[in-house]
Each structure stands twice: as C-alpha cells, then as structure tokens.
C-alpha cells in the first residue's frame, strides 16, 4: 500500500468548542448545511446507511450514500462510501469503498479536527487517480466549510 496514493489526510484547528464541532459533524441536518447535502435522518448511527441529495451547485442530481461505521460522541465519526461516484450511469456498488474518519481533539485554542479518507489503492485502476484528486480537493474545501459554519453560528 502506498500511503501517498491510498489516503488523504487533512486537519484544521477550529476556534470552537469540541461539543459544537461534534454537533456540526454528527447532526445530519447541520452536517448537510456545511457539507452541501440534504441528508435523511437526524443523527449518524453506527451500522446504518444515510442518504441525501447533494446540494452543491452542479451536483444536485447526485445522491450521497454512506454506511456509518463508528460513532464515539465528541471524539470519532467514520463511514464508508464510494468516492467520486458522479456518473449516474455507473453502478458503483460492486466496487470497494473508502473509509472516511473524523477525529476531534480538544486543544487550548479550540478543537483540532482531523479527517482521513483511506482505501483508494483498492479502487479500480481506471477510477483511482481521479477519485483521489477529486476528494483531495473536496476535503480541502470542506475544511473551510466547516470552519466557517462552526465559527459563524
């Protein structure tokens, strides 16, 4: 496994209490506001799938579908999904998924949020590079989105 192509790692120091950041991550409605998706349900629950239409301009025809792996309140949230699944004519379900992990740490100046998405090396070769590129840029954008969301509200 080549860690430079298999995993994306991002982190951001948020000037907000861990409880506030956790609510923005774990409450489906709040998550959707900063992430750009209209999710069904109220909370992320381990073992359950959550779906919703993307609200990001140009991607409204897509549905985000994640299977929640682990929920440790105010510390960890993880799910599996099919990254960069943007061609509605393709059935991505036979493909391996990547694992997205959010970890929160309380620090003196607020909350350190770390996001890791791993498993890209298991994706079909034809999609691997583009999925990694799209999600690497996407996570960079999402770090700014959650920062704005938790500090403006």
From TrEMBL:
Domain Activator of Hsp90 ATPase homologue 1/2-like C-terminal: 15-150
InterPro entries for the chain: ASHA1/2-like_C, START-like_dom_sf
Family: Belongs to the AHA1 family.
Name the UniProt record assigns to this protein: Uncharacterized conserved protein YndB, AHSA1/START domain
Organism expressing this protein natively: Paraburkholderia susongensis
